[in-house]
Design brief:
The structure holds two protein chains of two kinds. Chain A is α/β, with parallel strands linked by helices. Chain A has 14 helices and 23 strands. Helices cover 32% and strands 28% of the residues of chain B. Classes of the chains: A alpha/beta, B alpha+beta.
């Protein structure tokens, strides 16, 4: 294995080369406005550092917050058409109903609701109205929208209506970009539909961005297939990423968890990533981030699809200390840390200054914090420790002790001993853990479906079959697939011993498929 | 908004998330619809009151979205069956999403909402209602689905039979339906309803929101406002669940913190919280209203959302008087939920 991982963050673009021996070389460069220039610079620096030993590379994997940022900052989103199949149900709560007004004003192009959808047991809710769907498609064509999100009642169980609608849309508007909700989400129509709508609004941006990445890679002279990371800690082929940008939401944190796992050699641990402004806590289970069971808000939109379970707290290296009340954060000096913190000659007392005063970090000029009140420093630092300890404990699944991996630029705030933690491990290359996680990421296939009346064994078997198929479609080599997660939950108030089954398989990227893609 | 927060607290762990109902009401208000609340004591003795609820599997409700028009349809079908119109509408249960059912009907039909319900909280089945405790007639019932299918159950032998038959019909139409229970007169509501619970839920929600705004402890504010009792505070350390016969049953263990740091609390649930144990001794049982709330935000936590690591407070709110009578206890006391325990109110022990 010889792969390059690139993490495009808000401030820095990091690049690493990883081979079977571990991290070979790591570089940090500033992120640029157009993203691709930063990537080119990082790649050029990486190659120059490698010099004569550059050699061939198997894959280049990019992790980016670009699409999340677009939603949060309300930029580069396209207006889309929503087509929901489910009448006569759901009439009173149309698509976009629970979106923040400012975001809906940008993304809500047109809304269509037609008759159809299914029941929980697979019977039709009402006959699918093909004519109304065709009429909606013609309107969408006439109005000139480039992307459509299609949702249908109980489509995760019976995708038929969404598939038929997508075929009609493709027939009426050749080349139209269609996101079907069943390809993304779980049971919970509004949240799944929201994920599909966000995806459709991002697809044009995703196309441009991913194609620019491919061009940048070609320009750098590296011949290797391009992948993007997604939020379960695995990768997707570039063309898949163009169609499903929402899978990149929260992928940065997933990458840092995977990177921490790889560097430390641990598969089951809590992970804390202390940045400049926020601290994220997650749970690494069998080498992958634990998924959130409930709806997750993205830019104020309540979505229900696969996201890592993540707790964010307003604490970081740049957090501002209130010496009088001995509190820390949530306000932070952010990226101005190197100007405003005391140890850098500034006038603001930050969490970093506390750590330097206590000798836990060697950053800037220690003499500038020499005359701080010891008691205040101790009390305020204890506050940080308690916040982290509580956050980590909240994210644990049970009371058993478990190791904690500390990563991120502010990892020195993590106390050496915490309640419920067997040991605190400060990970090497912690500042580029995201890029390392990107470099080593594998390909996955996932299923989250309700099965009725087939029994537990068959339900699990069928689910694994679908997951394997999806993984291969996403670019995995079938021979390397392994099952990493399988759970079944009985559902109350439903006939036929209904079971919700979640299965995930993971494998290595298939070299044959991917090299062909790289040439297209 | 305060009603959603308050109703969720009175749900005592069950009753379903009011999210969609709240969205519906926001849409209706924006469209200029208004809802009037009437004091049950102002009802004429022969006023006709519809008792409404949504019935079915919460999972199905996540896909077949709550629609005020369907809620109103069941009421119109009952009117057609009876051959007379309703003067007002009230909730079967004030706990959880069903608190909004009469509001949606009222906004659709232009009739007022009675400030009352039949449980003072949420319970799993209709035989737990105050009208069942009063042994009032359990029929007729109408059940409507979104396609316009409607069923009238004109006669049943008992409240339990009504529950069994209506659940079967509900499953056939896709496991979610709007229902109207047996119609009530103003006299019956005044005599046997749990009165002023809509106001109570709104005030409870307002108390939480105010406390959050003032950065005060919302749980303490709730206890103070409603004459409740602060039972325990700690961290959830274990949750065991199993789904059986339409119930989500289970138990959660909470290790104490702060003032309670030496103790362990256990709370059992069957859709709703049923019995709480402090260090192995019974501390509180139904019909006292057992609420588990987020220690920081005061947001109620449903039985399905309990998980390891949550910081929670356990609070008891006083049960409606009717539920603590011998007849009431037969329907909603600990024995009605399978516990061989006598009911001793946590509030009674205080005055003793």
């Amino acid at each position: 294995m010889r792969r390059i991982g690139i993490d495009v963050g808000g401030t820095n673009t990091d690049a690493v080369l990883v081979d079977d021996s571990g991290v070979v070389v790591a570089v940090k460069t500033p992120t640029t406005e157009d993203v691709t220039t930063g990537i080119l610079t990082a790649l050029a620096e990486l190659l120059s550092r490698l010099g004569a030993v550059a050699g061939p590379v198997d894959a280049v994997v990019v992790g980016t917050t670009h699409f999340t940022d677009a939603v949060v900052q309300r930029r580069d989103l396209e207006p889309v058409a929503a087509l929901r199949i489910g009448l006569p149900s759901g009439r009173s709560l149309p698509p976009f109903v629970d979106w923040p007004e400012d975001l809906a004003a940008i993304a809500r192009g047109a809304v269509f609701m037609v008759q159809g959808g299914h029941e929980v047991d697979g019977r039709p809710l009402a006959p699918f109205d093909e004519r109304a769907t065709r009429e909606a498609a013609e309107r969408i064509r006439d109005l000139g929208f480039g992307a459509v999100a299609v949702s249908a009642v109980f489509s995760p169980l019976t995708p038929e209506c969404e598939e038929r609608a997508a075929a009609i849309l493709g027939d009426v508007i050749p080349g139209i970009l269609v996101t079907c909700s069943h390809e993304l989400g779980r049971i919970g129509l509004l949240g799944r539909e929201n994920a599909a709508l966000l995806n459709a609004a991002l697809v044009p941006l995703a196309r441009r961005t991913v194609r620019a990445f491919v061009a940048a890679l070609r320009e750098s002279g590296i011949q290797a297939p391009l992948y993007l990371t997604q939020n379960d800690g695995t990768v997707m082929r570039a063309e898949f990423a163009e169609a499903f940008p929402v899978w990149s939401f929260s992928s940065g944190f997933a990458n840092s968890m995977r990177g921490a796992a790889y560097i430390s050699g641990l598969a089951d641990a809590m992970v804390v990533n202390v940045g400049g402004t926020t601290t994220d806590v997650g749970h690494l289970k069998a080498g992958f981030p634990r998924e959130a069971a409930r709806a997750v808000e993205v830019g104020g939109v309540r979505t229900l699809f696969r996201m890592p379970d993540l707790l964010s707290m307003g604490l970081g290296g740049g957090s501002i200390v209130d010496p009088e009340h001995r509190t820390v954060g949530p306000l932070s000096v952010g990226y101005r840390l190197t100007e405003e913190a005391r140890v850098f000659g500034g006038s603001t007392l930050t969490a970093t200054d506390l750590a330097v005063a206590l000798g836990l970090a060697d950053i800037g000029d220690r003499s500038r914090v020499a005359n701080l009140n010891d008691k205040m420093v101790g009390a305020a630092f204890l506050r940080c420790a308690i916040l982290i300890e509580e956050g980590v404990d909240r994210m644990k699944m049970d009371a058993l002790p478990i190791p904690l991996l500390a990563v991120g630029g502010g990892a020195f705030l993590v106390p050496p001993e915490l309640f419920g933690i067997s040991e605190v491990i400060h990970v090497e290359h912690a500042d580029v853990a995201n890029a390392v996680g990107a470099a080593i990421a594998q390909v996955s296939g996932e299923v989250d479906q309700v099965f009725s009346g087939v029994g537990r064994e068959r339900a699990l078997q069928e689910a694994e079959g679908i997951a394997r198929k999806r993984a291969v479609e996403a670019g995995a080599s079938a021979a390397t697939l392994t099952l990493v997660e399988a759970e079944d939950i009985p559902l109350p108030y439903l006939p036929g011993d209904a079971l919700r089954v979640r299965v995930r398989v993971v494998g290595e990227a298939s070299p044959i498929t991917s090299s062909r893609d790289a040439n297209t | 908004m305060p009603l959603a927060t308050g109703a969720w607290i009175l749900g005592a762990g069950g009753g379903g998330d009011p999210y969609q109902a709240l969205l519906n009401m926001q849409t209706l208000y924006r469209a200029g619809r208004v809802v009037h609340l009437v004091d049950p004591l102002d009802l004429g003795d022969d006023a006709q009151v519809a008792v409404v609820s949504t019935m079915g599997a919460p999972l199905v409700g996540e896909e077949r979205l709550t629609d005020p028009a369907v809620a109103a349809l069941a009421v119109r079908q009952m009117e057609e069956h009876l051959g007379r119109a309703f003067d007002a509408v009230m909730a079967l249960e004030i706990g959880g999403s069903n608190a909004f059912q009469p509001l949606m009907v009222a906004a659709e039909m232009g009739i007022p909402v009675v400030d009352a319900d039949t449980m003072g909280r949420a319970y799993p089945e209709a035989q737990h209602s105050s009208f069942a405790i009063a042994d009032l007639r359990p029929y007729p019932l109408t059940l409507a689905d979104v396609r316009g299918n409607a069923v009238v159950v004109s006669h049943v032998a008992s409240w339990k039979w009504m529950e069994r038959i209506s659940r079967k019909v509900c499953a056939e139409v896709g496991s979610i339906a709007a229902t109207v229970k047996a119609p009530r007169t103003g006299r019956e509501v005044k005599d046997w309803g749990i009165l002023h619970t809509v106001t109570q839920a709104i005030e409870l929600g307002q108390t939480v929101l105010d406390a959050r705004y003032r950065k005060a402890d919302p749980v303490v504010a709730v206890v103070k406002h409603s004459g409740g009792k602060y039972l325990f505070c700690g961290k959830v350390v274990d949750v065991a669940r199993r789904a059986t016969e339409g119930y989500l049953r289970g138990t959660a263990r909470i290790d104490g913190r702060d003032a309670h740091h030496r103790g362990t609390f256990r709370v059992d649930f069957q859709n709703n919280f049923t019995v709480g144990w402090l260090d192995g001794h019974v501390r509180v049982t139904v019909p006292d209203i057992i609420c588990v709330m987020d220690a920081l935000t005061g947001e109620a936590i449903g039985t399905e959302a309990l998980r390891y690591g949550q910081r929670v407070c356990v609070v008891a709110l006083p049960a409606p008087a009717l539920q603590t009578t011998p007849r009431g206890l037969e329907h909603v006391g600990p024995r009605a939920f399978g516990y061989d325990l006598d009911f001793r109110s946590v509030f009674a022990e205080e005055s003793a």
